[in-house]
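Example (one chain per record):
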Amino acid sequence: IGTLAQRLNAVESLASVDTLCLDKTGTLTENRIAVSAIEPVDGRPDEALRADLAVFAASAGAPNSTMRAVAEAAPGAPAEVVHEVSFSSARKWSGLTLAGRGTLVLGAPDVLARSGVPVDEGLRERVRGHAAAGRRVVLLAGGPTPLAGEDLPQGLVPLGLVLLAEAIREEAPGTIAYLTREGVATRVISGDDPVTVGAVATAVGVPGAEAAISGADLPSDDEGLDAVVAGTVVYGRITPEQKRDLVRAMTRGGRYVAMTGDGVNDVLALKEARLGIAMGNGSQMAKGVADLILLTSSFATVPRAVEEGRRIIRNTHRVAKLFVAKSVY
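Predicted structure:
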């Protein structure tokens, strides 16, 4: 059925799952993203923003999927790098200090705004509009002050928005509908903007997708977190540690939780869940800790695996009844 069980009872365990946590990118949407548009800020010409993006993407020493998409949309030549801060799921931004060009930072608009980048209400409204349409939005900021360590320097100003498009997987709506009919609650946990995540969750038919929360608003105490997971369906701007804590809180509430993911940022949650499910095209680390691997990287494999697990359980019950009757006789 296109799955590899790395734990003896993984398929049977899937039949007992009542809550399935999903990462958005690579599970509900295609793993590949592309730049759909760029929008300069404060009347800057498109050519200036494209040139900044081109040198940033070409000079990055550890490009991720977003950086590769930017490089495809704005090819260019690298510049001399004085200091680099690579992207991390916890930080939500990456930055470069380039010789003769100052500092460029690319990251989540709300995260950069909380770190001191002046994002006015007009720009915030543009970001919200794009996020509500299901697009991922990242902000390019720049300034003359060099990076020092892993902290954002002062004096950064917004240069432009980069809009990233992700295609929804064709099989996702049907799979979500099957899980809902079978009584499995779906929770979407992502590092992207909660508005974007909520729009994608709504598009694929996740029940209650309007109940969304940002990682910055999550309580740190167990009691508060337990109250949040009782009624919230969509979680955005979540760090890897918060993913783990959310899965732990759901398990404390008596749920049999499965976690689906494909990246290094999902590893902690995959290990914490009663059943970890990794996509076949995911990172080696994610596949190494998962109990079940979807070899075809297709979310549509899950219903077949659930049905197989339930068939095994039904047969086990029948055999048990037979032996009990035999023992009585």
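Caption: The CA atoms of residues 236 and 292 lie 25 Å apart.
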